[in-house]
Amino acid sequence: MDIESLRYFVKLYEKRNFTRAAKELFITQQALSRMIIKLEDEIGGLLFVRKSRGANPTKLAKDMYPKALAIIKDFDDFVYDIHSKVEKQKYILKVGFAPGTLRVLGVKELIEFGRAYLDIEVDIGEFSDVDCEANVLNGNLDLALTVKPNNENRLKYIHLIKENLIVLVNKDNPLAKKKSLRFEDLKGQKLILLDDTFRMQQVTIDHFHKAGFKPDVYFKSSHDLKVVYDLVELNKGVFIFVEKLTVVDKYKNIRCIPLDVPTAFWDAGFIVKGDTKMKLGVKKFINYFLNKRSLEQI
After folding, report:
1. Residues 244 and 104: beta-carbon distance below 8 Å
2. What's the rounded mean pLDDT across residues 134-141?
3. What domain count does the chain have?
4. What is the pTM of this model?
5. What band does 89 get if pLDDT is binned at 50, 70 and 90?
6. In terms of residue numbers, what domain contains 271?
């Protein structure tokens, strides 16, 4: 005898009809009948007299009904109480993600983390790289996955992801014929860049300076990559972006060319406040994803 068989018994007792009871239990009439027969075998007595128009409870069923109700109520109260305690004990982890980082990390992996650590509830939000840093520093976020900060000694950075950069050019641009590009090749080109809220922007600017020229900027994007892709499609400029985050399948006039510069890449990882002790939940979260990528845990 288990709690489900008691639920079936109670429903049939109240409905006095196998068809109606089975419908409300979302099972077949045959399944309900088998369950009642099994329960009667376990008890050693008849609970219902089957008739063509219904099921009449026996004296044994009438005696059993209020006790079954009490057992079901006690069981449901027990389950509710346990779930309530678990929810109260859950540690809420506030995690920020810079644009594109959640896609690279993997939503599936984030869900798997939640299944592995039932005591931690992850509250996520998307912010620019700069806002990720600001929210970690002011305590609004416990940690963030973002591009490596620029010489920020108030933040601790734990590397997680390294991705190559590519150059998006129009097929009619002479650069489209090249198998790979360097920053020197982009001199004289109209450039489409990310704005300064993206830390990758500083990486590209530094490399332009190393190449000996100042970029001729046609447009700066704050977040809308569709606008950027449309501009490249119309041959209004070239755009440097992360290879794994680039989605231009619908654009017939765009060519993606590798940027062959070993020092230019997208470096993303976790940031936490540097002057405070790392919370256990934060450490579990970071180590889970470091382990997934066979990186040294903290």
Report:
1. yes
2. 93
3. 3
4. 0.66
5. low
6. 91-159+267-292
